[in-house]
Amino acid sequence: MIKELKDNYGHLFEDELLNEINQVGTFKEVPEGFKMIDIGNYVKAIPLLISGAIKILRQDNDGDELLLYFLEKGDTCAITLSCCLGQTKSEVRAIAETKATLIMVPIQKMEEWSGKYKSWRSFVFESYHHRLNEMLETIDSIAFLKMDERLIKYLKEKARISQDKIIQHTHQEIAYELHTSREVISRLLKKLENLGKVKLHRNYIVIKDV
Amino acid sequence: MIKELKDNYGHLFEDELLNEINQVGTFKEVPEGFKMIDIGNYVKAIPLLISGAIKILRQDNDGDELLLYFLEKGDTCAITLSCCLGQTKSEVRAIAETKATLIMVPIQKMEEWSGKYKSWRSFVFESYHHRLNEMLETIDSIAFLKMDERLIKYLKEKARISQDKIIQHTHQEIAYELHTSREVISRLLKKLENLGKVKLHRNYIVIKDV
DNA sequence: ACCCTACAGTAACATTTGTTACAGATGGTT
DNA sequence: AACCATCTGTAACAAATGTTACTGTAGGGT
Fold first, then answer.
1. Residue A92 in this model has a pLDDT that exceeds 90
2. Residue A142 CB closer than 7 angstroms to strand C?
3. What is the 3-state secondary structure (H, E, C) of A129-176?
4. For a disulfide at B94, which of A116, A153, A159, B37, Cβ 3.0-4.6 Å?
5. What ipTM was assigned to the predicted interfaces of this complex?
């Protein structure tokens, strides 16, 4: 039995299911920045995240990007589940935000376990629930917040995810994820610096008080 | 057996499940504009939509609204499913866009049927799948489109939902659903009229060529 | 130390969206 | 017909965001 499996999912799944996951699942470690799924890809395995964080991005026809949300320890990707079941292509891109470890489960098991284990069903339903709420949160941000508020929220979230006051991004990278231009981000960051909320450096930003 | 149940869900569910739904479900008819669920409400039944359309709205803390998407014939509300399972309050408002008929199923059946019927599981998963994709579509619109494009998309969708070239809304109502101001909508509608795409009237808009 | 590239700063301007403040039109009611 | 509430049109302005164009600078590579 993979130790991390028991540690992270032991409270959710009964031993029999844990054993099944252990048998058919494969342990995987990916480096920061690793592109796990791209738009249009067919998904062949369900990821169970053990450590690290995965960022999920949306892209429009012109190649413009937008950060949707992060997956963290104990999460699985509901959109992936969704793709598995429907045998449809991925509508999103998944990139490792930090170094991450996960267990990949072949999609065939999905339906089998859904009938067999109540705990698996609960896990899947709970994942969907969580994901829908994250999507609502994302919609709230883009629809109701102005760019300065979105930027602050973004910085907080990045700091939380990486457990670090230092945000390792250029202004251009932030602009991509918030779907705006580099100049706008520079402008707003400079305002935040003048307010004493951040300290700007080349290639990184230190969060002081946001 | 309620005739509409067989007609609308017969291809999805086996007879045994249809019978169960028939026994515990209650047939319901709601008028246009009927508020079915409000933000903060606890949900006590799962709706299976037979006819008509339900609009799902999001609201922020300041009371600002935003139309998320419509539910149509054969749909169920995944957010409702989600609420049922998690026993959490609704994060959205649901209002009948047109007169609608539906079957309400008590939430207790949800878990029971999920274990018992593969077809029910498929239906629930498919609903989540569909709903996540609708949410992505909504995010695309708000994030990547300008207001004039969003308005055109909105008018098309309304026309499709009501199967009518006449949109029965004031400019103010449209502004609420797109989360902008009445003046902006008036301005953009007038542009569309000058382009020959719509014909404006008091309280309604005729779609000509969008 | 010098060079070079990528990054950051910033002004000036354009565009889009939001706001204020009215005027005018419409359609129902008395 | 006169009245009235509500809806629509629109100008003028404000604010937010996007774009262009350029300068300066940090830091790695040689």
1. yes
2. no
3. HHHHHHHHHHHHHHHHCCHHHHHHHHHHHHHHHHCCCEECCCHHHHHH
4. B37
5. 0.94
